[in-house]
Design brief:
Layout (H helix, E strand, L loop, with lengths): L3 H12 L4 E7 L2 E6 L2 H13 L2 E6 L2 E6 L6
Antiparallel strand pairs: 1-2, 3-4
Length: 71
């Protein structure tokens, strides 16, 4: 999720979900405000379905690209 293209893809996926707000989205890092853990799990699943790997825990998760466009 290093390129603008990948950041836009992730942003678009998350914007389709309800009850979640993007706090910060930058190269390789996403901060969201989900209403609960279930919604957080939905966000992670949506990001992974879009072709990205989500790493991290305790509120800090990073995403890496598996689509090949970020190198």
């Amino acid at each position: 999720m290093q390129s603008t293209h990948c950041q836009t893809r992730v942003s678009n996926v998350i914007q389709q979900l309800q009850n979640v707000r993007i706090e910060k989205l930058e190269a390789g890092f996403l901060t969201i405000s989900p209403e609960n853990d279930e919604i957080e799990a939905e966000v992670i699943a949506a990001i992974e379905e879009a072709g990205y790997k989500v790493d991290g825990g305790n509120g800090s998760k990073t995403s890496t690209c598996s689509t090949g466009c970020c190198g």
